[in-house]
Request: fold
Amino acid sequence: MPHTPESDDLDLTPPPKPVHYAEQALLGALLLEPARLTDTEPLIARHFESHTHAALFTAIRTLPPPEPADHAKDTAWLNAVLDHARPHARGLNASYVHALIQFCPQPKHAAAYARMIRADNARRILRGHAERLTSTATDPSLPNPVAATLGLADDIGRVLDSLAEQFAPHPGSFPRTALPPDVSRRPSEEDLGEERLLLATATAYPAEVRQMRWLTEADFLLPLHAALWQSITALVHRGDMVDPVTVLGEAQHRGLLTDSLTPKDLMALVSTPAGSPEYWGERILRRAVLARARAVADRITAYTDDTANTPHQVITGSRRALAELSSLRTRWNRATAPAPSPATRTSARPAPAPRAGPPNRPAFTSARAHQ
Reply:
């Protein structure tokens, strides 16, 4: 059994991961048979997890390979590699270089070792992108969190496209990783308050609800609120009259009344409007987009952390997770699209007659201005 070389490189932390041994084996193969370097393409130094190993690989690629006959007789080339790498790798010494050569099981397997290194690098890249996606989606200080979050999601999509070209597909490509719980769906009182305000303003101004097909029941955190939104939109799209009593009737038909939700409670819930349905709807949809982005990041992280997954399984699972953000992105774009100009609106259809709102109705602006 080959001896495992040790190093005082600070970035080699116990217990070593499989890629640590793959890096050692590859470097041993290249130090023993430098001509094997051609078998490692398209491996580059930044694919290595260990900084010391990356420095050695850079030196091997940079220095002209020795003649095989000369290399078998002396250590001149090995010394040159060490001298080239040592300024970039603290603690690297001749004994570690020679231990790497002794550790390599089969120099002719250099290509396999290189694939293991590239696969581990792909995991680290995706995990780093997922961490940035989580950080951005949960950062309350950003002026436009949805745009920043969707931009990072696009970056992940491009990375996945690039990785898909590097790793061959195979049967059974979907990962079997146990997915983490969706912690992003835990509501705060502020979140629930916004949902209640939407229901009340939608009941008060049903005409505005007709234009809000971009909001669905899946965007709500509380199932009761989702069901009440369905009740209100059903009345609106049927052309029925909408007020707290008719919403109560629709809710009754949908079986929403229980011992803990009386008719009086339900009517009180939809009878305190403030602002506009669009304002609260956009806030709810924005929260749903950011929550879904965080859930996507958690899933990608779970796939990359599961070492049983092949690179193609990680890519496939990550793509499917990312696709779940697409419908929300489409609906967000509809919700936040600029309103048509008066000329365009007039040419498309007659403008509706102005409707006077209730006295002292707060002048809330669109949620786009509050992102």
